[in-house]
Structures are given as structure tokens and as C-alpha cells.
Design goal:
Strand content: under 5%
Order of helices and strands: HHHHHHHHHHEHE
Number of domains: 3
Distance between the termini: 100 Å
Shape: elongated
Helix content: over 70%
Oligomer: single chain
Structural class: mainly alpha
Amino acid sequence: MTVIISFIAILLLIVLSAFFNVSETALTAASRARMHALEDDGNVPAALVNKVLSRPEKMIGTVLLGNTLVDVLAAALASNIAVDLYGQFGVAYATAIITILIVIFAAVLPKTYALAYADRVALVVAPPMQALIYVLTPFTKAIEFIVRHILILTPGKADDAANILAAHEEIRGTIDLQAKEGTVAKGDAEMLGGVLDLRDLQVADIMVHRTKMETIDVDEPPAKILDQLMRSQYTRVPLWKDEPEN
């Protein structure tokens, strides 16, 4: 009976490990833009996703703490069962078996699924993850303290220009990727990419000099004006009267 209970406990611990892995992958891979749009529409799980991601160090600390605890406990229980069944060699058997089970069913499989359906999974795991973050806060505070002091050594506000550039490049990369996948039309992608370049443009870059403009003398006969308009490549043509400058 004790062995059966231990087996059930190991299975539950592997399920918990899978939950932590799938939660971390889904929450970090979820579309922030879509989550914010859903939150604006009143979606409560999306609001929880954004709340969790607003403090990523708490989420990561909870995942690491929970994952470490359940994996170590599962390994300990498996070793205990193996030693009772096979003696001192049971530790090697338990290590091999529990490693295979954790890698396949608690890591690779859930992470792969979470990457494929990140937004959907994030909405499901956000409520329990938020509850776990609250419960484990006293323990993760210590982890957060250490992480914050280590992050002091990494780029901060002094690199805001680089961070803005990185954000622009990320948006540009997303547009290019969607265009390649056919989700966004090529013309729309070029237009959206052009918006990112507006800050670098001057009026001289886009203006047409008046000597090169296609214009029409308003005093010309209507038939000639109509003919010029029909042959023009533009849908709007400036008119002038008496002299081209007018």
C-alpha cells in the first residue's frame, strides 16, 4: 500500500512539474499585445496574465522554487521505492527512470504544447499561477531580492535609446515575419514598416519640387484638361492660373 501511495505521489509531482513548465513557457511566449486587447475587452484571465507578466521576477521565482521542490521530492520518493525493491542499485534505476519521466512528460511535452498554443494556455494557467505566486511570496521574496541586486549590474535606464531601438526592431521583425507567412499583405507590411521610419524622415525626403510637379492650367479648354487628367498617373492634380507659381 505504501508503494502504491508513493507511486501516486510521484505521478502527482510530475503533473505539478509539468504545470510549472507549461505555465512558464506559455506566459513568456504569450502575445502581450493580444493580452492587453483582451483585457480592454473585459477578459479577466487576460488581466491576470498581464498582472503576472508585470512582475516577471515573481513568476520566474515561483516557477523555479516550485519546480525544484516537486522534482527533488519526486526523485527522493522514486529512490526510496527503488531501494526497497532493488537494494542499493535501486538508486541508479530510480535516477534513470525519474529523469526520463521528467524530461519527457514534465518538460519537453508540456513546453512544446505551450509554445504551440501560448495564448490559449496562458489564459488557463494564469489564475492558478497567480494564486501560487501569492502563496509562495514569502519564499520568492528572497529570490527576488537576490535577482534585483544582480540585475543592477545589467543595462538599465542609461540604455533607454538601445531599448527603444530593440523594440522598433522587434516590431519590424514581427511585420516581416507576418508578411512572409502571408498573414499581412506586402503593401500593408511596407506601409507599417514605413511608419517606423517616419522619425528619420524629413520633408525634403518625400516632397516633390514644384518644377517637377504635374499641374494643369485652369484656363485650358475643358476637353484638354480632361485628357490630361485621364493620362495622369495621379488622382489629384494641382491647378494654376495665369502663371505656374499661382
